[in-house]
Amino acid sequence: MQIKVENLIKTYQQSKGSAHREVLKSLNLEIAEGEKVAIMGPSGSGKTTLLNLIGTLDVPTEGQIKVEGQLISEMSSEEMLYFRSKNVGFVFQFHHLLPQCTLLENVLLPSLTQKGDKKMFIQHAEELLTYLGVWEQRNNKPEALSGGECQRAAVARALLNKPKILLADEPTGSLDNKNAALLIDLLVDINQKMNITLIIATHSLEIAQRMDKIFTINDGKLVKWEQ
Ligand SMILES: Nc1ncnc2c1ncn2[C@@H]1O[C@H](COP(=O)(O)OP(=O)(O)O)[C@@H](O)[C@H]1O
Ligand SMILES: [Mg+2]
After folding, report:
1. Residue 28 alpha carbon to ligand 1 centre in Å
2. Which atom of ligand 1 is found nearest the CA of 42?
């Protein structure tokens, strides 16, 4: 999906009564359909804020976000919920799998809010777990798995509803080098094979350089744009 961010401003109020702080200061960027891009920048520069706005987890203070020409920044919360569950997958620094559920159950969680044949969801979940190399662990709980395996199961969960946009917020931040490299290989492959627009916030230049474009933000502004 094509994403266009125009004059995006986000302010937060740290606590009630305190002054508003501008975190994103009129940000502009464009991401083409099926493209893979990195968002870089120091801690606190607004990377997570930007991903949350694109993923409709939060709403802008000012400015616009268009996805395929559709103004997502002006949707009602019901419309955002529908847009998000249909189009967006999220992967975070930590896997956030439910400890009391098996891997397969965790991957199936997004299907709970969807209509459709349960058997089809299970089949798709198993295909994704196979593709991500953790199918044999499907009946185990996260505690029995390594961090890398859990993160790959979290990617499977993010893909269950066949999103068109995958937002990965420092997805290798808690992994060792080997597992980080494996995860990035998989994300790049997913972007190509499934035609999913991939946006990855990362501190790693090595990871960023594997993307089509690198956007660097600093203090809420786009300071660099590399292709
Ligand atoms: N919900 C929030 N309420 C108040 N301030 C926030 C909130 N979320 C983020 N911030 C602030 O916005 C700034 C940018 O945060 P963030 O987008 O998480 O940066 P990054 O992901 O680049 O580290 C930080 O100073 C952070 O403290
Ligand atoms: Mg962040």
Report:
1. 18
2. 22
At 211, list the tokens.
């993307």
Distances (CA, A) of 9 to 60, 156, 158, 194: 6, 32, 27, 32
pLDDT digits (tens, 9 = 90+) for 55-101: 999 999 999 999 998 998 889 999 999 999 999 999 999 999 999 99
Measure the CA–CA gap between 80 and 86, rounded to whole angstroms. Answer: 10
The closest-lying atom of ligand 1 relative to the alpha carbon of residue 13 is 4
How far from the centroid of its chain's Cα atoms is residue 213's Cα? 16
Cβ of 135 less than 6 Å from ligand 1? no
- Best CA proximity match to 164, nearest among 187, 195, 199, 190: 195
CATH of domain 3-94+162-226: 3.40.50.300
Query: 210: alpha, beta or left, given left = phi > 0 and alpha = psi -120 to 50?
Result: alpha
Give the integer Cα–Cα distance in Å for 47 and 41. Answer: 7
Q: Is the CB of 216 under 6 A from ligand 1?
A: no
